[in-house]
Amino acid sequence: GWAGTVMRFLPPVAALARAPWRATIRELKIGPNNVGDAGVAALAAADWPCLERLILTNNPLGEGAARALDAATGMPMLGELDLTNTKAPKTSLKTLRKRLGAGLRV
Description:
There is one protein chain. By secondary structure, the protein is of the alpha/beta class. It is 29% helix and 12% strand. It has four helices and five strands, in the order E-H-E-H-E-H-E-H-E. It has helices at 13-18, 37-45, 63-71, 94-100, and strands spanning 6-7, 27-29, 53-55, 80-82, 104-105. A five-stranded parallel beta sheet has the order 1-2-3-4-5. Helix 2 runs parallel beside helix 3. The longest helix has 9 residues, at 37-45. Mean pLDDT is 87; it is low at 5-10.
């Protein structure tokens, strides 16, 4: 089954955010896949009750992605968010920085 599965790449991101099995995903690595702010906003708006690690490295992310992630409430288990090699501004990630501490990489 999908329980505990590590997903490394799935096109398109908006479809992934609607997939019924997303509730079992613990780690999601999407990078580099040209995922932009709209794709990250779709991910951030979805419920990911088991997601512990979200890796979005090497994607063209900006202010919109940063704000969407910072406002996300559907990732209660998230302990690590990797935004290295993106343009996501650190100043827009205040809530996540408080919550994740060293688990937030930008």
